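ARCHIVE CARD
CATEGORY: sequence design from structure
SOURCE FIELD: tokenized fold
FIELD CONTENT:
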């Protein structure tokens, strides 16, 4: 197995994040039209690649903005 340096690992993560954000942006445009811009601004602040991946996967089946926000905004009581 080839050794991956920390610099390479960071580059891979940045590239993965960029690709996930592009996919999320496209899905938001298709699902929510005019609201896409506001939603994308919120989501693009997320750095966690796993959370972005979960958002992209969920976009296939969710139907409302509230369902989407439940994925990435913590519930505060």
């Amino acid at each position: 197995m080839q050794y991956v340096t920390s610099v390479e690992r960071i580059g891979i993560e940045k590239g993965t994040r960029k690709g996930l954000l592009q996919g999320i942006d496209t899905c938001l445009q298709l699902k929510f039209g005019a609201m896409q811009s506001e939603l994308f601004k919120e989501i693009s602040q997320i750095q966690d690649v796993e959370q972005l991946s979960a958002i992209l996967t969920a976009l296939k089946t969710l139907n409302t903005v509230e369902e989407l926000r439940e994925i990435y905004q913590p519930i505060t009581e």
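CARD ANNOTATION: Residues 6-32 form the longest helix (27 residues). The mean pLDDT is 90.
SHELF: design records, drawer C
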